[in-house]
Design a protein that fits this description.
Layout (H helix, E strand, L loop, with lengths): L2 H24 L2 H5 L2 E8 L6 E2 H11 L6 E13 L3 E14 L2 E17 L2 E11 L2
Parallel strand pairs: 1-6
Antiparallel strand pairs: 1-2, 3-4, 4-5, 5-6
Length: 132
């Protein structure tokens, strides 16, 4: 893979991750779900995997913010890349604003498998782990 292709893949992956974060924090469920492949899977600690867009829509609807929140995603590393598939690992800190201000709720990591479709990159699989 050429250096320019790798740069193009990395930019697409980072844009997808950023779009997901911003849509989720704004409570735009349909926008979040549109970023997943039709047969995508989402895995969270202590929960059964969520398979497909209908289940993802139900889950993200339940998780819609009721007060200001912010997922800070950083240190994204592309661990494998091809023109139509990539894997990436990112650190995440989830903050929520309460009566006494912003507070860290969760520190974790995303391990993503992403695929490129005709209209852009989509999540095929996201595995979230929490740091102790």
């Amino acid at each position: 893979m050429s250096e320019s292709t790798l740069a193009w893949v990395a930019a697409g992956v980072r844009d997808l991750i950023g779009a997901h974060t911003q849509a989720q924090d704004a409570g735009r469920t349909d926008a979040v779900v549109a970023l997943y492949a039709p047969d995508a899977v989402l895995e969270l600690p202590g929960a059964d995997p969520v398979f497909g867009r209908d289940a993802l829509r139900a889950a993200f609807t339940r998780w819609a913010p009721t007060k200001p929140q912010q997922h800070l995603v950083a240190n994204t590393v592309i661990t494998a890349a091809a023109e139509d598939e990539a894997t990436a690992v990112s650190d995440v800190v989830f903050l929520q604003r309460g009566e006494s201000g912003w507070a860290v709720q969760v520190v974790g990591r995303y391990e993503d498998t992403l695929r490129r479709y005709g209209d852009g990159w989509r999540f095929q699989r996201r595995v979230t782990t929490y740091q102790a």
